[in-house]
Specification:
alpha+beta; 105 residues; two-stranded antiparallel ribbon
């Protein structure tokens, strides 16, 4: 898996065009850092990256309609994203790419 930052962010951070991330190879040190960012375990962090499917009332849609969007006859109209988890993912990808000045994230 890889992330692609905007051109402006790549230039500002000195990052490569593609940031490769392997979430199955989180090191102990990375797990400790991820914990300080609010995710108790790497598994919970990985789970937080999945978007929750929501119906028109904001309730989570679970199973049944294969996650079809309302326009396709399903119940899903929106997604709830854990932006904190995605920020940690970008941090992890940048760290692994050798970008060390991450305060501007």
């Amino acid at each position: 898996m890889y992330l692609v930052l905007s051109k402006a962010d790549r230039e500002r951070l000195g990052a490569p065009e593609r940031l490769h991330v392997d979430l199955d190879s989180i090191t102990n040190r990375e797990a400790i850092q991820i914990r300080t960012m609010g995710f108790r375990t790497p598994r919970l962090f990985r789970r937080a990256l999945w978007a929750a499917r929501l119906d028109t009332d904001g309730n989570e849609v679970k199973g049944g309609d294969d996650g079809k969007m309302a326009s396709e006859g399903g119940k899903v109209v929106d997604f709830e994203i854990d932006y904190g988890a995605w920020t940690v993912l970008v941090w992890l990808a940048l760290k692994r790419a050798g970008v060390s000045h991450l305060r501007d994230l």
